[in-house]
Amino acid sequence: MTIFGICAMLVIGVAGTGTHPLQLVVPSGWPAPKYDFTKNPLTLEGFLLGRRLFYDERLSKDSSVSCASCHQQFGAFATFEHPLSHGVGNTLTSRNAPALQNLAWQSAFMWDGGINHLDLQPLAPLTATNEMGETVANVLVKLRRDTGYVRMFREAFGDTVVNTQRMTKALSQFVLMLVSANSKYDRVMRGEDSFLLPEKLGYGIFKQKCSSCHREPLFTDLSYRNTGLPLDTTLNDYGRMTITGNKQDSLKFRVPSLRNVAITHPYGHDGRFFSLLSIFEHYRKNMVLSPLTDSILQHRLPLSNFEIGQLTAFLNTLTDTAFLTNPLFAPPGYNITPVFIHRH
Amino acid sequence: MTTALGLLLAPGYKATDHHPLTICFHNTVGGRPLELSTAVYDNRFGEPFSVEQFKYYICSIRVTDREGNQELLAASVHLVDQADTASLTLRLSCGLKRLRSIAFVLGVDSTANTGGVMTGDLDPMRGMFWTWNSGYIYARLEGQSDSAVSPAHRFSWDVGGYKTNANAAREVVVSIPEGQADEGSGGKPYEGPITIEADLLKWFDGKTAVRLSASPTCHEPGALAMRIADNYSNMFSIVH
Fold first, then answer.
1. How many CB atoms lie within 10 A of CB A260?
2. Strands B70-74 and B48-65, sheet pairing
3. pTM metric for this prediction
């Protein structure tokens, strides 16, 4: 299965460099990706190196945390059931790990958009004392001592140089391939399936009440918005304002994609919502309104119990089981991501 | 980088035979050579301090000769690090003679701030980079001061920023004293070394006063970083 899957991803006909080019297939009707692939062409070798790095706990200070510890395939590469991500030595972060999907269409990262390039993203969790707690220099030392890694760097990049840029480019190659575009919703849009009545009604309500922020086909417009979340005074996370220094950006956070939303709970930048129902209650009742609340939510978001039911039916159609169980995205040596990944 | 290319193509530029030119950076505190860790200094406000780290990025190094011709010597970014002796000397190649001034940018080009992970002196591994709010730290002054009301009395000034209204990159021009770079031995072009002195006391009062007691920490782009950048952009000079 794995071999077959990899072969299916190969673009036949380009040879000579010793690498096997991969192509990111842009789903029909989607915009052009924002990632600049000319600076980091996808190859099978780069992807496999990135996947190994992604699943390697040795990248952390005490070999206890990998990227995959908080980004679990069965949770759409978010953390299954954790509100705040866990770091080395019983530390906690102040944020909920977001799902990793369709990152090629995104140009800023983190809940506050503070990171301006996908290749830079791994450096934040690698070095944060409450995440992986390691230095980049030490990570490179560990990789250079491992002949298996040195071989994979050579296969991916042509020689045995192991540096920050190559490590992060390989990680980007892996996460760039994490495309989720094969849910029931997608099949319906392609004319290969049809909605049940509640799903269809829910889609109508979604387009009327949700899609101005959770815009199709990515189910986010990638903007930063204040949705009336009161400040948690134990976290003091002001979101976008921390990056821009602009008071108007207080408590704004990136609109998350709703793809795979049924399995990416808890929700919100700090994971304060444990269920979709609690999100709906927030929007219709609990929002704390202020002049900085997003203009389209100034009267909260009225939702009837009927609408909540139909919306829930629709949101369940965004679960992409082909993505959640794709063996290519499982740890090296596995066909399906094992549950023991989730051990914190 | 656009600026640099423009200069290369400027009508005043003359392509000539190139000769080596060595430029050295000499970091001082009010004229005394900078010693890391051990020495204690005072700034103009009577605040005592010691220095653990002193680093800054320079790029786009240009020279101008007596006739006003300009030449770009090195567009690439170089990290000057007081703890790394080799980093204090730059060996360049120069076509112009009888130099009048040297110009450079203290900071990192905005394209490098938005272009992902770089290599060499710009490798984020060197720590001159903000991982949570992407961008390079252009200059760092870190140490301890009894005047700093902060944990362990540490002060930490990391200055950077590339966005509009928070761009901390600074253009620096230093004049070469009359006659110093006219001629080398035996009538050959002057090959240096030209020593550029950087007086870190200017960080505190090069333009406006920034006191350790009031601002022991600068860890993000913004108003304080801009004030410190304005200050330290005045720290360079060439002494005969």
1. 23
2. antiparallel
3. 0.89
Q: Which two tokens stand for residue A129?
A: 């004392």
Contacts of B116 in chain A (CB under 8 A): 39-40, 117-120, 165, 168-169
What is the C-alpha separation between A323 and A181, in angstroms, rounded?
Answer: 8
- Whether the per-residue pLDDT at B14 is higher than 90: the answer is no
Give pLDDT tens digits for B109-154: 989 999 999 999 999 999 999 999 999 999 999 999 999 999 999 9
Q: Give start and end residues of each alpha helix (H) in A79-135.
A: 123-127
What is the CA angle A164-A170-A173, rounded to 5? 140
The CATH classification number of A33-180 equals 1.10.760.10
Q: How far is CA B124 from the centre of its chain?
A: 18
CB of B113 within 8 Å of any CB in chain A? yes
Q: What stretches in chain A show pLDDT beneath 70? A: 1-17, 341-344
Report whether CATH 1.10.760.10 matches the domain A184-316: yes
Shortest distance, CA B84 to any CA of chain A (angstroms): 17
Report the sign of the C-alpha dihedral through residues A149, A152, A156, A157, in that order.
positive
3-state secondary structure chain B: CHHHHHHHHCCCCCCCCCEEEEEEEEEEECCEECCCCCCCEECCCCCEEEEEEEEEEEEEEEEEECCCCEEEEECCCEEEECCCHHHHEEEEEECCCCEEEEEEEECCCHHHHHCCCCCHHHCHHHCCEECCCCEEEEEEEEEECCCCCCHHHEEEEEEECCCCCCCCCEEEEEECCCCCCCCCHHHCCCCCCEEEEEECCHHHHCCCCCCCCCCCEECCCCHHHHHHHHHHCCCEEECC
Domain boundaries, chain A: 33-180, 184-316
CB contact under 8 A, B124 and A169: no
Looking at beta carbons, which residues of chain A come within 8 Å of B221? 245
Find residue A235's DSSP bridge partners. Answer: none
Interface contact B125-A118, CB threshold 8 A:
no
Angle at A192 between CA A187 and CA A197, to 5 degrees: 75
Give yes or no for a contact between A280 and A256, defined as CB atoms under 8 angstroms apart: no
**Which residues of chain A does B220 touch, with a Cβ-Cβ cutoff of 8 Å?**
245
ipTM (interface predicted TM):
0.84
User: For residues B60 and A67, what is the distance between their CA atoms, to the nearest angstrom?
Assistant: 38
